[in-house]
């Protein structure tokens, strides 16, 4: 009997495709019965395939409609992941709201998010009483987090003078000293991997009082450009390799909670350790489908993930077929859709957390 092979169609932007779909991944996946097939952008998705799974990182109304058409024609196919679930990560406020909803008990470590507020206009930006709950320094981030270069442009603001160059809508997030180290936690289904990266140096009391420029621009906290402010002596003294990692079980619990709440399989979240409390951690960012190729052994991790998805899909389809005889055809079809639509992250809770558009009236700081 011929080996059962599975087709995983991928739809990625050119830059993402170049970094993620490497020969090493394609070869390993093929050796384990998984064929990675590029989805043609010029042809409707529903007219391509057949695909057992669609892996994507594309956005827009047209792509969303194509996914819906594909799902209608292929109810047993697995979509990684659904646009309505990904959407909440495009807004830096709704992105971190889910953290406040997590409940992790019986841990000596605690977690949360920094104090932050969304600013929609210049008037509010310079209205000190509107956000007097925040203390300088603060990090200014674009409200929209869609992966574009613009969405990565951030600034560390030391005082009120640094506010003049900001362009709302923005999120102001209180900067917390964290030893110049950020922990990037990669999640691939049930797999969780944490790596350490250099971050912004701690800010001293003298700097807080305004001895520095009012504003420091940067693109990514964990990847300062060479022309941006760096302090080699600071990092040499810091000894990144000697920095203690957060407990793996603690990060796994958070990752599992985020995965269930967000209904997402592929994401990473950035964590810092609050320098004021050794066991207090703050989640400052969550990204969908990050640069996994930077993660050691990513080929094995992703191939295992694809195989697990296909095995679970097969089991659930077989189970659904066995139950079909005693079920109303319409009810069975609905159940089948429910089974495969959350094929890897259902864990007993169907559906996706709603993404509520932020209105101007919702300018309350999120404080944890």
Rounded mean pLDDT score: 82
| Number of strand segments | 14
Percentage of residues in strands? 15-25%
Report strand order across the widest sheet: 5-14-13-10-11
CATH class term of the largest domain: Alpha Beta
Query: What class do helices, strands and sheet pairing give?
Result: alpha/beta
State the CATH topology of the largest domain: D-amino Acid Aminotransferase, Chain A, domain 1
- What is the overall shape? globular
- Which radius of gyration do the C-alpha atoms yield? 22 Å
CATH superfamily of the largest domain: ATP-grasp fold, B domain
Number of domains: 2
Compressed to H and E, one letter per element, the order equals: EHHEEHEHHEEHEEEEEHEHHEEHH
Helix content: 25-40%
The count of helical stretches stands at 11
Low-confidence stretches: 222-231, 332-343, 348-368
Outline the biggest β-sheet.
Answer: 5 strands, mixed
Distance between the termini: 57 Å
Instruction: Report the CATH architecture of the largest domain.
Output: 2-Layer Sandwich
Binding site for Mg(2+) 2: 285, 287
Binding site for 1D-myo-inositol 1,3,4-trisphosphate: 16, 152, 184, 287, 291
EC number: 2.7.1.134
Pfam families: Ins134_P3_kin, Ins134_P3_kin_N
Structure description:
This protein folds into 2 domains: 6-81 and 305-313, Rossmann fold; 88-288, ATP-grasp fold, B domain (D-amino Acid Aminotransferase, Chain A, domain 1, 2-Layer Sandwich), CATH 3.30.470.20. The chain is 31% helix and 21% strand. The protein contains 11 helices and 14 strands. The chain has helices at 14-20, 23-31, 61-73, 83-86, 92-100, 122-125, 205-211, 232-238, 248-262, 298-324, 329-341; strands at 6-11, 34-38, 53-56, 78-80, 110-112, 116-119, 138-142, 154-157, 170-174, 181-188, 191-198, 215-218, 266-273, 280-288. Strands 5-14-13-10-11 form a 5-stranded mixed beta sheet. A 5-stranded antiparallel beta sheet has the order 6-9-7-8-12. Strands 2-1-3-4 form a 4-stranded parallel beta sheet. A hairpin with a 6-residue loop joins strand 13 and strand 14. Helix 2 crosses helix 10 and helix 10 packs antiparallel against helix 11 (329-341).
